[in-house]
Design a protein that fits this description.
Helix content is 10%, strand content 29%. The protein is built from 1 helix and 7 strands, in the order ββαβββββ. Bound molecules: FE2/S2 (inorganic) cluster (FES).
Length: 78
């Protein structure tokens, strides 16, 4: 059962959980803040809309296309 760090808080998830699902399990489901200051969240869940862009281990990734790994650092806040 992987344990990631979501916005400085530990979160255990089931094996095979995507980061997008972890955002719902451990937070408010949002992944980033838009340039106009609105919180954004995953929409399509299949890698098309790009709304789930998020910082994972220091790199911008798609939350819906990334599986949670033990020790992963996920930052949804600026
Ligand atoms: S939710 Fe649309 S690309 Fe990830």
């Amino acid at each position: 059962m992987p344990e990631l760090i979501l916005d400085d808080r530990p979160l255990k998830v089931a094996e095979g959980t995507t980061v997008a699902a972890a955002l719902m399990l451990g937070g408010d489901g949002t992944s980033r803040t838009s340039v106009s200051g609105q919180r954004r969240a995953p929409v399509c869940g299949m890698g098309v809309c790009q709304e789930c862009r998020i910082t994972i281990d220091g790199q911008r990734r798609l939350a819906c296309q990334t599986l949670c790994r033990d020790g992963m650092q996920v930052e949804s806040r600026p």
